[in-house]
Amino acid sequence: CVLCGRTDDCPEKYGEKRTYVEYNLTVHYYCLLMSSGIWQRGKEGEGVDGFLITDIRKEVNRAAKLKCNVCRKKGASIGCVAPKCKRSYHFPCGLQKECIFQFMEDFRSYCWEHRPVQKFLDKESRGTSQCTICLDLVEQFPAYTVLKSPCCKNAWFHRECLQCQALSAGIFFFRCTVCNNKDKFQEEMLRMGIHIPERDASWELEENAYQDLLQCYQHCDIKRCLCKKGRDYNQPDSKWEIKRCQCCGSRGTHLACSSMKSWEQNWECMECRSIFAKSGNYSKQKKRSLATSEKTDGTTCLLEEPSPKCPRPSPGSQRSFLLQCIMCQNNVSPCSHLALPAYSRVTMSLPPLMSNRNLSLRKKDLRKQRREVSNILKELKLQVNTKTTRLNINAGNIWNSALKGFRQRNFSPTNTIEIKLTNCKKRSKTHTSASSKHHFFQLLMLHLQNSSLFEGSSAKNLSLDFQALKENLYFEAGKMIAVSLVHGGPSPGFFSKTLFNCLVYGPENVKPALEDVADVDVAQTIQMIKYANSLSSLESTIYNCYDFLAAAGCLRPVTALCDKNMLVNDILIHHVIKRTKSPLESFRQGLKTLGVLEKMQMHPDAFSSILCHKPERLSAETICDLFTIRSSLDVNNAVEFWMGYLQDVESGQSVVTLEDILFFATGSLSIPPVGLDPEPTIKFLRRRCPVGNRLLNCLELPITETYELFKKKMEFTIRNTLRVERE
């Protein structure tokens, strides 16, 4: 070392020993930090951590004139800062003589006579105690080698133990081992010469340090496993996906082996089920319809009670903290023993179908709003720069690979996103950026719709998933939706009106409805209160649900039958709004990405058209308006053939669909809210068959003599191209 003259390489004592061949320079990091005549005049990456090479050489020349008061050799670059003290020494010599070096502020140094000491009260007991780091005995006596905690009365440490712990824990995790105090403890230890590096803890920097903890139980324990590939076979997003017991997590089943239709269903192993049965918390009940609601497509959805084989409350509320409290106190589920009276079985249906005229006006209004939101998203897209971020996405495990990509260090929402989509089943890769990106966002939105982050049938609200909240998944989901909207992906289209209003106007300004309750037990409780026809029946219902209402904070004095309305409103606000307050706030923060939430709040009607409604089906008119015809040839007949062909496809007189034509030309199955970039065009050329240039969104069509030949070429090429791609 050019400053202390020693060859020792001991990072714990002298700091990292660094050699710079180009400057013919070797120096200990601590020797450099504590030298009295040098300052960091350069930038962080300049010279040696901000110390310029010229300044280091000047300091070496200055120290060469000073003799060390310990070893009597020249080169003593460190001096005591006490007034009138002229002692100088090398850093290793100062350690040997028990000097104090303060690694903070001005990096002061004190000699063995002027060093700071810890103050002890005379009445404090003397003796021995355990060092709480190494657990060896330490004398309770003020000395250089012994330090006392400033925040705990009887906490004593060896100086060496504290220094080792500080180097390992770093500034973020170094704290008192007894009371966990950080600020007061660090301040005192820095004053007494303990070096606390400004970096993360060593265990956090070790690659794959916690890999073993990430292993999940993956084995089907059902007595008769139906999977031909064995009990350990697990295929995500299929019927052979392994679902773990929601209570113990140490038993599993394939979805198909337990007749479960989706991952949203909760499952309990036989051991846990028997424990619940013994405690009275698990009872076999027949399925019965509670309420029906019309889906947007006209199909009917039944809210059913779960069978003992496959219990199915909503994923966010099953075994939630609220129900746990109730069950633990009373060993019953809310109102599980109550039968719903015949007069209170009410059908929740949509209003009568609109007339054709009203429906046409509604569609026209939606189209207008979607054009408005397209312009808004195009404005937001101006933030996206040309710098590219590549995401490697596994289509078979879309969520985990998307989460990994969005959380990688170099990911930025303002960068252009390039998707490398891999299908592990077929070992095939897609490199076409436009089509693979749209397909990725489409799969991602579909996964989010069916994930445990949301609950409900078609119009969904946020659920309460404590594990997802802990892992910040609600934020990531909001961020992914915002990025999808701006970068040309599809919109989710599954938000309920209540969820959308909470995001736009704030939860305190939203009044939820019974349709927003996905949990069967809670829905039943609300219905029994809502449709009570006398004060006595209302009081009886409240009495039977007393513990549930108390845990929800919804108990109120009931003096008249009309009080039930306020009680129902309280339960709805608790279950739909207050219970999911933390997920909602996290989700809102994610939607702020690229300024999407701000635009939603400024243009609520426009964004409601894409977030609360599925995109309308493609029509011949939509496709015709989407493509701009650019051709220098006389193509009047060809244009007529094209328009006629679109009409035939729409009316079902073709083997291909309008979605096939759009996918053939652009790689997208639907028109994203932000629109297609570049703008889709059509060229009529004298060629044998049509060509879809997805890079330019250009559809090159052949000029033919007859319409029949045009249609034949279109159908043959599109059908075979898509078939080959699927294979």
From TrEMBL:
Pathway entry: Protein modification; protein ubiquitination
Highest taxon in the source lineage: Eukaryota
GO terms, molecular function: ligase activity; ubiquitin-protein transferase activity; zinc ion binding
Subcellular location: Nucleus
Major subcellular location class: nucleus
PHD-type domain ranges (all copies): 1-115
Keywords assigned: Ligase, Metal-binding, Nucleus, Transferase, Ubl conjugation pathway, Zinc, Zinc-finger
Matches recorded under Gene3D superfamilies: Hect, E3 ligase catalytic domains, Zinc/RING finger domain, C3HC4 (zinc finger)
Record-linked InterPro entries: EPHD, HECT_dom, Hect_E3_ubiquitin_ligase, PHD-type_Zinc_Finger, PHD_PHF7/G2E3-like, PHF7/G2E3_ePHD, Znf_FYVE_PHD, Znf_PHD
Pfam family, one: zf-HC5HC2H
GO cellular component: nucleus
Protein name (database record): G2E3 ligase
